[in-house]
Amino acid sequence: MKSKDRLLAQLRGGEPMSGSDQLQLTLLLSIPAILAQLSSVLMQYIDSAMVGRLGSNQAASVGLVSTTTWIMGGFAMAVVTGFSVQVAHACGAKDFGKARGIMRQGLFSTALFSILLGLICVGISGPLPLWLGGGEEIHSDASNYFLIYSAFLPVSMVAFASASILQASGNMKIPSIIYVCMCALDVVFNYLFIYALDMGVAGAALGTGMSELVAAVVAVWYMLSRSEELKITGEKGSFIPTRTSLRTAFGVTGPLWLQNVVMRGAHVMSTIIVAPLGPVSIAANAFAITAESFCYMPGYGLQDAATSLVGQSLGAHRNDLARRFGWTTIGLGMIIMSLLAVAMYAFAPQLMGVMSKDPEVVNLGARVLRIEAFVECLFAVSIVGFGVCAGAGETLFPTILNFASVWLIRIVLALILTPRMGLVGYWIAMASELAVRGILFLLFIKSGHWMRKWTLGNAG
User: Fold this and answer.
1) Would residue 55 be called left, alpha or beta, if left means φ above 0 and alpha means ψ between -120 and 50 degrees?
2) How many Cα atoms are found within 13 Å in the side-chain-facing hemisphere of 64?
3) What is the pLDDT of residues 253-267, one digit of tens each?
4) What is the pLDDT of residues 210-241, one digit of tens each?
């Protein structure tokens, strides 16, 4: 069996790669990325389970602001992607000096942007729960949770940036180890702050923030001093972004910001739609989303691998190989998420029962999870397919697909079905939209138009 480094050298050096070589490299990059995503999900699961023990109101307070934490984090993550794709292209071309320069600029840009974003979030933490339609009984906990999240936003985004850039260089192992350790630390810190110090919901946010702080320190240290492709020990270089790297980054980041507004804005809208149903439905919805993430987060691990593989293939000017890696990662995503969907359907009550002891929350959450299980296969296509497109620097058209699907199908159906069917109606709307979105991405990937931006930008 060939090592990951040997296979990456084949890819970058223009050597022939058989189907088995491609599958092996995909698995070698995907498995650590999937483990990293699963550990991230486990952190959410742990937080939800520990907060759920405090009561339905406390659980609802976290669920109420969770969609807003996603949208704020999504803005910073988009900045990271704009630079990590460039790192993948540079590594594929074996221009590691350029990769290190982009890494510096990406790290600085992410830190600066997330500090500014964190300050904005701190400023809105007080009125946010009221804006989202939360009741007075959950306002204080929700506000405190979001305030602490906001304070740690720069830390969490620097950790994410370091992991993403390492993954783009082909190193999936170290980020996965860091994420697993962060998960273990989250358990320790959560127990300390939630229970030992009796800080309740605020303790959950503080525990997660502290674990992210440790992860950020370790990830930055490793990237700057130990990574074979990216270490800058003894090398001079500026962290201030150049006009060229900023322009290239914004070509990817701009559409991703739009997508973040589209997708996360839809999630906030969904929170507003669900909030009037009461604390039980809010808690069941939040816990069900966390439980479902065990099923779909492996898809995001494959998305990371797809971006790296496609990006490095194109950087090495191997367009046919990029296409094959695209289909290989999408196929694996569909298989893995389909198998996990079967398990999610079978064990839906048990998954919900870990996070809540309220029988109403558990029963409602299990019911909606079983609705979603039927579309996870197509959900995989849209998740991994977006990573394939991002590897080619194409993020605008996938964003348009997401916008049309989410706002014209999910939100419209949710507005019709939720008042009539409660939370079940909302999840039927979501499942219908995910099925349509998956089909749209299949058609787009098959058309080959996702490579057009790369081809035009590198013509001649």
Assistant:
1) left
2) 34
3) 777 777 777 776 777
4) 998 999 999 999 988 888 888 887 777 778 87
Amino acid code (one letter) for 362 = V
The 10s digit of each residue's pLDDT in 387-445 is 898 888 888 888 888 888 988 999 999 999 999 999 999 999 999 999 999 999 999 99
**Full domain range(s) for residue 46:** 4-457
| Confidence category of residue 460, pLDDT binned at 50, 70, 90 | very low
Residue 157: CB atoms within 10 A of its CB come to 26
Q: For the purposes of burial, counting CB atoms within 10 Å of the CB of 187, is it exposed (0-12), middle (13-18) or buried (19 or more)?
A: middle
| Residues 441, 446, 448, 449, CA torsion sign | negative
**Non-local CB neighbours of 367 within 8 Å, separated by 6+ positions:** 348, 424
DSSP 197: S
Under a CB-based contact definition with an 8 Å cutoff, are residues 299 and 384 in contact? yes
Place of tokens 């991994």: 384
Distance between CA atoms of 100 and 165, rounded to whole angstroms? 10
Beta-carbon count within 10 A of 134 CB: 24
Which of helix, strand or coil describes residue 225? helix
Question: Which residue type occupies 94?
Answer: K
> Rounded to whole angstroms, how far apart are CA atoms 20 and 299?
21
Residue 39 in contact with residue 259, Cβ under 8 Å?
no
Cα Dmax for the chain: 65
Structural domains of the chain, count: 1
Both tokens of residue 456?
């035009």
* Contact by Cβ (8 Å): 185, 244: no
Half-sphere exposure of residue 55: CA atoms within 13 angstroms, side-chain side: 8
Q: How buried is 235 (Cβ within 10 angstroms: 0-12 exposed, 13-18 middle, 19+ buried)?
A: exposed
**Length in residues, the chain:** 460
Q: How far is CA 277 from the centre of its chain?
A: 28
User: Residue 1 class from Cβ within 10 Å (0-12 exposed, 13-18 middle, 19+ buried)?
Assistant: exposed
Tokens representing 446 are 């098959």
Q: How many CB atoms lie within 10 A of CB 136?
A: 8
- Cβ count within 10 A of residue 57: 16
- Model confidence at 458, pLDDT cuts 50, 70, 90, reads low
Nearest Cα neighbor of 78 from 267, 327, 249 is 249
